[in-house]
Known about the structure:
By secondary structure, the protein is α+β, with helices and mostly antiparallel strands. The protein has helices spanning 2-15, 18-83, 86-93, 102-119, 147-150, 153-158, 204-212, 242-246, 286-337, 353-365, 367-392, 396-412, 416-433, 442-459, 485-494, 529-536, 546-557; strands spanning 123-130, 142-144, 166-170, 179-186, 196-203, 219-223, 229-232, 255-262, 265-273, 279-285, 439-441, 464-470, 478-480, 503-512, 515-522, 562-568, 572-580. Strands 2-1-5-4-3 form a 5-stranded mixed beta sheet. A hairpin with a 2-residue loop joins strand 8 and strand 9. Helix 13 runs antiparallel to helix 14. It is flat, with a radius of gyration of 48 Å. Mean pLDDT is 77; it is low at 381-398 and 540-544.
Amino acid sequence: MRQLYRKYIYLPFVDLSFRSKLFLVFVLVTIIPMMLLVYFSYELTKSKLTEQIYINMMSSTAQINKNLENKLDSYEHISASIYLDDRLASYLTAEYVDDPSYLDVYKYIGNRIDTVMAAYPDFDSAFIYSDNPSLPKDNYYIKPVTPEVQATELYKQLQQSHGNILYLTTPQSEDSPAMFTLARLLNNNRNEYPYGTLVFSVSESVIFSLMEKEAGGKDIFIINDEGIILSSADKKLLDTSLPEMLNHQFAGEASGRFDTTYKGVKAFAVYNTLANGWKTVSVVPYESIIKDAKSLSQLIIKISLAFIGVALLLIYITASLFSNRIRTLIRMVRRIERGDFNTPREEQLGNDEIGQLHFAFNQMTGRLSGLITEVSRKELLGKEAELDLLQAQINPHFLYNTLGSISSLAVKHQDSQIQDMVQNLAKFYRISLNKGKSILTINEEIKLTRSYNAIQLIRFKGQLNITYTIDEAILPYSTVKLTLQPFIENSVIHASWNQDNPLNIHIKGVTQDNDIILSVIDDGMGMSRETLQSLMGEKPGRGYGIMNVDRRIKLKFGEYYGVKVYSRLGIGTVVQIRLPQKAV
Length: 584
């Protein structure tokens, strides 16, 4: 057996060209599974369509139930409003002896019912049965409780309803269509006995309209708890027994499905139960399900045949493409085998594994020149790194030491102003450098600002006053570095003052709406709109501008925070900086 396998299967297959091998394998793994797919798809389609139709029917019956329950709930709400009407109760229970005040009863009840009829056009009629002998009946809004009324099934069931709403149906006749009757006893908490019966009548067509749009080719019925058809597209079936028609007794489950015979053909039925015990039953013939399955299977066969033809063409093209590229690689390998490293560049073979292998072979011939270029590049990068290292070795302590030396000289020469300016400048840069960190506490920012202001106060002695109002509760919270200094510098540079009227700058820090508001207020000459717009922009040589501070705050804390500037020419300028209460 093994020799026969090797002779007639293995060796003939091995001797085939690569293109023939690919074509044969692709045919086996593509055509045969596709043919099997066509067969199984038909069987699976029938099963899945049946299941899907069941899901759709259950969904439609559930939607019908929801629509119907919503409609019945709205009826119950309007009946409840009349049930709880104390004024109506007092009218219906009052004693009327030769008293024309009963006309007020007619007027009130008439207005009440007319309002309901206008708000709910579904109602064909609405009235109240009253057994108050002293109240005259108009037989329109108020009707008497006659022996004939007491003998009706409606009146008997109402006596056991305890004030709950009751639904009954009236089958169609030659004179009138099928009607739904909604009734309840009027008996509120202050009356220990029923003082009337509220009755609404609704046409069956109103109920059927709730399920008509959900039919979709299916026959849908609404039946009561006894199986009597209450609503249907075929009005001839109203008031007949659906279980007898379908030869199926509904089980105690709230929902389910079953096979049946409907109008002489095999059919599929599902049902769902409402809260009041009614059922929505949907019936669809199996012929429509099988028809869809047949149509779908025929479509699958046609598509499969088209795919098979396209697959054969693509398989042949793919096999030829692989074969040609492999032959190209074989030619390159044989040149290298002969020691010919000056391999001429072949055409691009793509970016898959074969293309990558082809690219690697081409790169081997230029590897030496590539290595030289790489060494030169690395030497250049090394020199740049050495330069960056030298620049990084500039230590900020050199600045501190230099400022310390200047301060010592100022002490030696007894120049206290230079000493104070140098010390404040050292403090300013020590805080502003902040070990390279861009975030510091408001306390540190205030110290930095005080150092800067001390220098300005020495520089403009007698021409500048700076005051502070800082809430100590905000000091531990964070801010970006150099938040206040640019605005103080802006006030000093741009605000105008004279010897008689020094410039006053007030720095405030308070909490507002769970945020922190830092303010720089000056009483200088203020700015025009054009000048303010100019300062809001970044310009070379201006250092940390207004927009720079605003952008840094927004990048760190969000777009809600930032800087707002208010200025009026001849009055002064106010800068408000909003920050979150966020710890460092």
